[in-house]
Design brief:
Length: 337
């Protein structure tokens, strides 16, 4: 075959320096799949207002983690790692990064994909669980760009919607949890606390978002893998973080769930950032700083966090397997990029 294979990794993006914070937030809140404004023409004015209001505290938070998000650097490393694995397997595919709200934007990545003459493209969101506000928004944007661009329409594309039940992903998560549990004095008493990025409740109840179901199934599968692979039978909780605005989001909220766990006399808490595969503001600042402080305040003094998978070899190899499966066969693709 003479296909030229590409892999497009989709992610949220993040400001790389403090001066980027306002525009990043504006891009974020301008997305109607993230914040739904009943009157569409008010979307951008309201996004501007929200961004201006939140930018000062967001800048302070980014300053606490070094002045910017590491998300682009990590995602670039993940892309290179997947590319390297595929090339070692005889598939000289090329991996690209497309961010929804910051550089490199998705349309920039697609422009490069066209220039490189890619003929078959695997689109892989770096969100294990599907939500209309994450993978859905990025895929919708790609659909719109595709419809308006005859050159893109010549590229065969395969879209991966979610992959929370992948065996390699589950193993990587279980191994990471087990490694951290061993750092506690009494591993059997550690409460495994899964903290997922939240979405507004009505996305699930009114718009049919499968996110909550996929998240709950994902946590069950991780715990099953942890029990089977490491004989860990620790209690666990799933809660949701990072809510914005006055509307109701998925519950329980992370800070409230931590307080409830403390009331039960639990003092060993291991937080698992289950919806994040890369370190960024929600892990480095929100969990490591804000929720650690919440835990200390309510009497939980043994607090730790499982690191994001980043370029974990088991995880990266599993994503490469996923790409090969999306292409149809790990053996039958001969390409020249």
């Amino acid at each position: 075959m003479d296909d030229r294979i590409g892999v497009l990794l989709l992610n949220l993006g993040g400001p790389e320096k403090l001066e980027d914070v306002y525009l990043f937030l504006y891009n974020l809140f301008s997305d109607p799949d993230l914040i739904r404004i009943p009157i569409p023409f008010l979307q951008k004015p309201i996004a501007s207002l929200i961004a201006a209001t939140r930018a000062p505290i967001s800048k302070e938070n980014y300053a606490l983690i070094g002045g910017g998000s590491p998300l682009r650097q990590i995602t670039d490393q993940q892309a290179q790692s997947i590319e390297d694995v595929l090339q070692r397997r005889g598939i000289p595919a090329k991996a690209y990064v497309g961010m929804r709200y910051w550089h490199p934007y998705t349309d920039d990545a697609l422009r490069q994909i066209k220039q490189d003459g890619i003929t078959k493209l695997v689109i892989l969101p770096l969100y294990p669980q599907f939500s209309i506000s994450t993978s859905g928004s990025s895929i919708k944007q790609i659909d719109q760009l595709w419809q308006s661009d005859p050159q893109l329409q010549q590229i065969e594309r395969v879209v991966v919607r979610s992959w929370f039940d992948r065996p390699g992903y589950l193993k990587a998560m279980a191994d990471s949890i087990d490694s951290k549990i061993q750092d506690f004095a009494e591993p059997e008493k550690v409460h495994v606390f899964f903290s997922a990025h939240g979405v507004p409740k009505k996305y699930v109840t009114e718009y049919g978002d499968p996110y909550q179901t996929e998240m709950e199934n994902c946590v069950d599968l991780v715990m099953q893998t942890l029990r089977r692979s490491h004989q860990r039978y620790n209690a666990h909780t799933l809660a949701y973080q990072s809510r914005v605005g006055p509307v109701e989001w998925l519950k329980p909220y992370t800070e409230e769930a931590i307080a409830q766990i403390a009331k039960r006399g639990i003092n060993d808490l291991l937080v698992v950032p289950i919806s994040f595969v890369s370190e960024h503001i929600e892990t480095l600042q929100e969990i490591d700083m804000e929720y650690r402080e919440v835990a200390e305040t309510v009497g939980i003094h043994h607090f730790d966090r499982v690191p994001a998978l980043n370029c974990n070899p088991v995880f990266i190899n599993d994503l490469a397997d996923l790409v090969l499966e999306a292409l149809g066969s790990p053996e039958a693709v001969a390409v020249a990029v």
